[in-house]
Predict the 3D structure of the following.
Amino acid sequence: MITENIFFIMNIIGLLAFAVVGSLKGIKKGLDLLGITVLGIMTALGGGITRDLLVNTIPYALMYPNDIIVSLIGVWLAIVVFKVFNEDISNKYIIQIPDAIGLSAFTTTGAMIAFNFEVSFFGVIILATLTGVGGGIISDILLQKTPSALTEDFYASCSIIGAVSFYLCILSNVNFEISAVICSIIVLMVRIVAILCKWSLPKFYSEK
């Protein structure tokens, strides 16, 4: 089935991208191999597990080994990237680009799952966004950081925009698979533009 193929492809892309991102964060933080692996796997699986729990489903990653195996491949890729670029690992784009790809893919899978469970418009937005940013939030918490999705730049907003575009496409009777592809492209494009243009949301500071 085409829908299943698209979900499978998006899921693989998201797992690999976020496993790389989480592992590179661990490497930059100076974690050992186990710490890097745990951070990579949790970044890759965290959002999907959270989504599945919210729709009252046993997380797929806990029932079958596929997702964990793909995540481990992502950890290995991160180590290879580190070995190849070495000193250039401090370049923010080394992490931000795969992170944008993962955000795009997982926002889409979250929106697809949400629609299949017939949740409301806001439910689609919440599940898509949590799937996209959940793993990153978990990895930041493990690193004892305030989640970057809540503080640094135009990040979670990209998932919200993508989820809204997906829902509007469905309402407009656009093919389900095409709606998913449109969602993915919009999230990726908005995130890349946000990185290049250094977009951010307004911040409010308490006067003390």
Observations:
- The chain has a mean pLDDT of 91.
- Residues 2-197 form one domain.
- The CA atoms of residues 110 and 185 lie 15 Å apart.
